[in-house]
């Protein structure tokens, strides 16, 4: 496929660099999600302790119901805010990963196509249709990936906006 071992090694190195960047991105975003979860858990625990203390001093049932209602509302708001933050992290990660993979598909596809062109030039019978089929496969793969990335991004945004009460974005034409 590739005319020189150095070209193959270069393609593999670039692929490895992108994979390493994706892993680093995944680790960083996982840390952010864990930090959000821990922060939310601490806040909910503190609120629970304060609510229990307040409930121990309640004099009548109506006051207890009001206190529990406020606590439940506060808890729901904090959980929803954490869910929004996690959704934002996931959306940003998906966008960044999509860009990286899309760039990799574009540049690697062009490099591999160039290598194929060089290979076919060196053969006694150059078959242009085989090269066209390969180029078409690369283009179709890239287009499918871009469409999946857009759909995934739109789904994350719709979820994020639905959880915040905003109106969903208008659909993009593919």
Keywords:
174 residues, 3 helices, elongated, mainly alpha, single chain
Runs in which pLDDT lies below 50 for 5 or more consecutive residues are: none
Rounded average pLDDT = 78
Q: Please summarize the sheet with the most strands.
A: none
Strand content: under 5%
Indicate the radius of gyration in whole angstroms. 26 Å
Helix and strand run: HHH
In helices, the fraction of residues equals: over 70%
First-to-last CA distance: 33 Å
How many runs of DSSP E, i.e. beta strands?
Answer: 0
Oligomer: single chain
Structural class: mainly alpha
What does this structure look like?
The protein is mostly helical and 174 residues long. It has helices spanning 5-56, 61-122, 128-164. The two termini are 33 Å apart.
